[in-house]
């Protein structure tokens, strides 16, 4: 009924509302029109409907049996995952997002589930599963490749995996078993019960500060991984307390410290 109401309001478009969410004044709605355009609408202040064309498959394919998924980050930037049908190729995964410069679409290097979230560092997260377990998959900013970050669980028959992110940046994952008789939930929030054997006795706070030709890590002891802005792993080691990471070329670096994440600039 939601789709019918929206389609009646829009008029000459058809198909149902597939997903919507609200962040600030933006209530995005995604749908497909009769000419095989994938379009996204935002309900701005004052009730004025705006729209963009995300993708156009006219004469090369269609969306008739493909349901897109949409997520909106805290900056009101939309992200979409969809599986259109292409003549001669069949169904192929497509990923798109809009930033301040407009829409960007691509064929990802793996089939992305219709469930993604974006954290405060603009890292996109999803979960995938196969017979060996449930996996945490990420896409770093300015990097086209999606990569496996960790195995969440060895659950061998997971189905219907979904991911969510809370206001503190913690991830929450739910999935069922193959016969849909069990619903499993997990999170990387140490105060709830995490993707590790037991929560820490105290909560460490990762602090990153600039230093000559590098940066300083403090407030944390344990394993760290340092990535450059291209998503390349530069360092993976165990630290104890205050640690200088140097020398580094000027740029932006991402730090994974246990379940914490940080970003720092090197000048």
Q: Any overview of this molecule?
A:
By secondary structure, the chain is mainly beta. It folds into three domains: 1-107; 113-201; 207-266, Immunoglobulin-like. 3% of the residues lie in helices and 48% in strands. The protein contains one helix and 24 strands. It has one helix at residues 2-10; strands spanning 29-32, 37-43, 49-56, 61-62, 69-72, 78-82, 85-86, 90-91, 94-99, 102-106, 116-118, 124-130, 133-139, 147-153, 159-165, 171-176, 183-187, 207-211, 214-218, 222-228, 233-239, 243-245, 251-257, 260-266. A four-stranded antiparallel beta sheet has the order 5-6-9-10, with no helix packed on it. Strands 11-12-13-14 form a four-stranded antiparallel beta sheet, with no helix packed on it. The model is unreliable at 1-26 and 196-202 (pLDDT under 50).
Summarize the SSE layout with pairings.
Layout: H1 2-10, E1 29-32, E2 37-43, E3 49-56, E4 61-62, E5 69-72, E6 78-82, E7 85-86, E8 90-91, E9 94-99, E10 102-106, E11 116-118, E12 124-130, E13 133-139, E14 147-153, E15 159-165, E16 171-176, E17 183-187, E18 207-211, E19 214-218, E20 222-228, E21 233-239, E22 243-245, E23 251-257, E24 260-266
Antiparallel strand pairs: 1-2, 2-3, 4-7, 5-6, 6-9, 7-8, 9-10, 11-12, 12-13, 13-14, 15-16, 16-17, 18-19, 19-22, 20-21, 20-23, 23-24
């Amino acid at each position: 009924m939601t789709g019918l109401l929206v389609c009646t309001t829009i008029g000459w478009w058809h198909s149902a509302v597939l997903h919507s969410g609200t962040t600030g004044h933006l209530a995005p709605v995604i749908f497909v029109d009769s000419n095989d355009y994938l379009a996204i609408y935002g309900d701005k202040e004052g009730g004025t409907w705006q729209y963009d064309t995300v993708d156009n498959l006219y004469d090369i394919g269609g969306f008739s049996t493909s349901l897109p998924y949409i997520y909106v980050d805290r900056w009101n930037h939309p992200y979409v995952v969809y599986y259109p049908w292409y003549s001669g190729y069949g169904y192929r995964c497509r990923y798109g997002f809009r930033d301040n410069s407009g829409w960007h679409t691509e064929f990802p290097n793996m089939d992305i589930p219709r469930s993604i979230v974006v954290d405060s560092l603009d890292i996109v997260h999803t979960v995938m599963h196969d017979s060996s377990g449930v996996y945490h998959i990420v896409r770093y900013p300015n990097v086209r490749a999606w990569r496996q970050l960790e195995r969440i669980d060895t659950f061998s028959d997971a189905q219907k995996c979904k991911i969510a992110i809370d206001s503190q940046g913690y991830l929450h994952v739910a999935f069922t078993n193959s016969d849909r008789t069990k619903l499993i939930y997990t999170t990387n929030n140490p105060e709830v019960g995490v993707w590790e054997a037991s929560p820490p006795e105290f909560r460490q706070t990762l602090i990153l500060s600039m230093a000559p030709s590098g940066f300083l890590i403090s407030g944390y002891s344990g394993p760290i991984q340092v990535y450059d802005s291209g998503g390349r792993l530069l360092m993976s080691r165990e630290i104890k307390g205050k640690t200088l990471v140097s020398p580094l070329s000027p740029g932006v670096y991402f730090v994974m410290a246990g379940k914490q994440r940080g970003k720092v600039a090197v000048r």
